[in-house]
Design brief:
The chain is about 45% helix and about 20% strand. It contains 13 helices and ten strands. Strands 1, 2, 3, 4, 5, 6, 7, 8, 9 and 10 form a ten-stranded mixed sheet that branches. Helix 7 links the parallel strand 5 and strand 6. The protein is globular, with a radius of gyration of 23 Å.
Length: about 325
């Protein structure tokens, strides 16, 4: 009997491929933990909970939110890095990770590029250059001109030292050649309150935190910091259109521990796209001034490298240190 070697080879190839396909279809085969570096109720946490609920409905497995706060997100990131690369742990973090890798470099025990596997850039929300109503400026150029002729200088607001709000104010100092003093607060909420009280003249505030006051006329907005105009604030120009390269995106993204299989990464990336297409999440994003992105892993990796380099330059130029 003559053996058909080509038939045997094909059969072997199918036998090898089938178990791998079966494994890919099985994920997730146990509970999946989503590490969130910030407390419950914030923008990162709320998005994580919305997405996890959608994942559970579509994949029939529990996706459990685990809020691990502290050290500007380093604690949650370290836990993710140390977790098994089997798809059972996801890190859902914000653009702050682009800052802390430089600002808190001495405290890091991991390499963000080597030890985390990008999955998808989920969403973006702009920082909004917002003024106290008493500040006599109707454009970014008018604000800069006012800052240059104000002898005692102007006060800008930021969250904690090294936050994207703080660095955006420093970026304006550097781009426009002004010397506004950046005052720090314990968070975005207290910083916006300082703006409303007149303690500070302007702030780069997250859109959700300042929009109610913009609508009520208690603050006024001049521009957004995202690369493109915000769908929630379409009439505002971008800082990038005034000072090319001025982009400070308060983004959100998901990562796996490095070494996670590509089929698992791709499946989660697909499920993220599906979740962002649901009416519930689209309505929430629109209400909260969040723009959905749903990038490829490669696009997230490129964006992360770009942001780290950009913020490192700002930190060095402004001589910002960890507090």
């Amino acid at each position: 009997m003559k053996i058909n070697t080509s038939t045997i080879a094909a059969a072997v190839a199918i036998a090898i491929a089938f178990p791998m396909q079966s494994v890919a279809q099985q994920w997730p085969d146990k509970n999946v933990r989503i590490l969130v570096p910030f407390p419950p109720g914030g923008g990162t946490d709320i998005q994580a909970r919305l997405l996890s609920a959608e994942f559970q409905k579509r994949m029939g497995q529990n996706f459990i939110i685990d809020n691990r706060t502290g050290a500007s997100g380093i604690i949650a990131s370290q836990l993710a890095v140390e977790s098994p690369a089997d798809g059972s742990t996801i890190l859902f973090t914000s653009g702050s990770i682009s800052v802390v890798v430089t600002l808190l470099a001495k405290q890091l025990k991991f390499d963000v590029h080597k030890d985390l596997q990008p999955v998808s850039w989920i969403s973006s929300t702009p920082l909004v250059l917002s003024l106290h109503p008493s500040v006599p400026a109707k454009s970014v150029k008018e604000l800069v001109a006012l800052a240059k002729r104000t002898r005692e200088g102007m006060n800008a607001g930021g969250n904690s030292a090294g936050s994207t709000a703080h660095l955006s104010a420093e970026m304006l100092n550097q781009a426009a050649g002004i010397k506004s003093t950046v005052l720090h607060y314990r968070g975005g909420g207290p910083a916006v309150i300082a703006l409303l009280s007149g303690e500070i003249d302007y702030i780069f505030a997250t859109a959700p935190s300042v929009m109610p006051y913009l609508k009520a006329g208690k603050a006024k907005a001049l521009a957004v910091t995202t690369e493109k105009r915000s769908s929630s604030l379409p009439d505002l120009p971008t800082m990038n259109s005034i000072y090319p390269g001025f982009v400070s995106d308060n983004w959100y993204a998901m990562f796996f521990p490095a070494g996670t299989r590509l089929d698992i990464v791709n499946k989660l990336n697909t499920e993220i796209r599906n979740a962002l297409a649901t009416e519930e999440i689209k309505k929430f994003f629109q209400r909260e001034a969040l723009d959905p992105v749903a990038s490829t892993p490669e696009e997230l990796s490129t964006m992360l490298k770009r942001d780290i380099a950009k913020y490192a330059k700002v930190i060095k130029a402004a001589n910002i240190t960890a507090q």
